[in-house]
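Researcher: Excuse me, tokens okay?
***
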Amino acid sequence: MFSSRKTVFTGKDVPSKWIFEHYLKLDQKLEGQDVKIKSIFNPLDKDPSLVVYVNRRYNDYYFRCFSTGVGGNGIELVKLVCGLSFSDAVRQIVSDYQQYLENGGLEQQIEYVPQEKWRIAQISRRNWNKNDVDFWSPYNIGSRILEKYNVIPVSNYVLQRGDETRTLDKSMGKVYAYRTGENVYKIYEPMNSERKFTTFMNHLQGWDQIQGKDTLFICSSLKDAMSLDSLGIDADFIAPSSENANIEPIIEWIRDYPKKYVIFDNDSTGLRMMQRYEQQYGLPYIHLELSKDVSDSVRDHGARVVKSNIISQIQ
């Protein structure tokens, strides 16, 4: 007989952080911080693309898998992981948490304090050098394009979270700040195998460079947008934060363009998301069947080949 103190009656009695810790087998306790791991829904995931984060609207943990597009709360996670209906997922969660308590597990507090996120307090710009030229030029991206899109090389920057500060020396590597005005919204470290991007604020990449052309391209990344812009195609170029980003707030603005095209990565996720954009929003897409993405295609096949391929698919 177990005590009533350890009896779970409904799914609401199970802390969401326990659900994510248990079913994702996390190696750390969730105490308000965000956690990024490799996707359990995509066996081909090379870089961590599944994020467990605090949804501040509901003050609860949620997840988003950027390589497959799925996401939601803890119940949705268990539905997908275990292949269950909503009600069966709730019963599974309650049963598993009950067993956890009966086996000596400690009851977890449902309330927690979301952890403050790091922000950039200071950044030091360095001069462009030959290493930068060697990196960007294969993508047909030169100083004019980099300046247009407000990309700068970085030697170091200072992060701040509450009273805590951290200085990162990047003087020996290829590190770039993506900015809107003087504010840094993303740090790009292409040589960092663990984390290429660190995002500090939401920003629609390419928004500041909109000129009101007749044609709009929606790309996977700012590098793809810059590489496309370098081809001399008369258009505007934007890149949401990811291929799975919600574009509902700007869909009417997008539809105002006489011509608009989605051009995402040449992989299963990119193709699936382009098809979804076409079905959900009526946006035609361009499937560039060359290399992984636009910029890699320019690097591997040349600007002329990529431009010709794109032009041939424009309606």
